[in-house]
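User: Can you recover a sequence for this backbone? Please restate the input before giving your answer.

Assistant: Of course. Working from this structure:
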């Protein structure tokens, strides 16, 4: 007899994570694989939006605590960069893909797999595990899964941090505008401002536009443009 979807999902979760789902309700885990676009078609009563919301919060807390304990001499800014290097959509989507979650992903007919969709599945799985097993067990699962990613030296991506924050807030994408151009030999040849919805967040200078944009994004973050 062919196994139903719930049984296959149970086996998948137990194989990928060191947890025992015997006597557990598998519905939250099925929901974790279900995008809201599939739900809109009336195919299933649940989706992963609420679980992803919870999982995102749990993930942030676990990473914050782990980095706080693991790197006692790091500044707040250094810890933030480390956390951002893991909690970004690209890294979470990569983890989800390596776990093989795509096999169970349910999407609406007009929706395609994207980095954000895959990251959402991973966050939702963390949320489901947290509901069943609590903080300490979820922390063990996540730390084991991340492995040496936690010790990796990460180059700060201020532009990415800024963009992802405002996209998650539903505000839009920051705009970078060259406001002045100086001597071609100057290290500050270009001056750029970054703004959102017409409001200036920061400014920076550099020998090329790309460097000036990066410095502007860093300036915006240093000034508290986003919640770290």
């Amino acid at each position: 007899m062919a196994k139903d979807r719930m049984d296959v999902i149970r086996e998948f979760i137990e194989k990928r994570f060191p947890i025992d789902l015997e006597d557990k309700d598998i519905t939250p885990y099925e929901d974790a694989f279900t995008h809201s676009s599939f739900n809109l078609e009336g195919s299933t009563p649940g989706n992963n939006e609420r679980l992803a919301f919870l999982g995102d919060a749990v993930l942030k807390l676990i990473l914050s605590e782990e980095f706080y304990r693991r790197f006692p001499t790091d500044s707040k800014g250094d810890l933030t960069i480390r956390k951002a290097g893991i909690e970004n959509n690209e890294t979470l989507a990569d983890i989800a893909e390596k776990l093989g979650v795509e096999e169970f992903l349910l999407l609406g007919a007009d929706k395609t797999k994207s980095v954000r969709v895959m990251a959402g599945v991973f966050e939702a799985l963390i949320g489901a595990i947290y509901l069943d097993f609590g903080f300490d067990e979820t922390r063990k699962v996540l730390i084991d899964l991340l492995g040496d990613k936690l010790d990796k030296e990460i180059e700060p991506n201020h532009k990415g941090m800024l963009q992802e924050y405002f996209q998650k807030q539903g505000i839009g994408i920051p705009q970078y505008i060259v406001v002045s151009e100086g001597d071609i030999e100057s290290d500050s040849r270009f001056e750029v401002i970054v703004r959102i919805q017409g409001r200036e967040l920061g400014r920076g200078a550099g020998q090329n536009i790309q460097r000036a944009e990066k410095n502007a994004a860093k300036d915006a973050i240093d000034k508290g443009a986003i919640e770290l």
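That completes the design. The CA atoms of residues 186 and 207 lie 6 Å apart.
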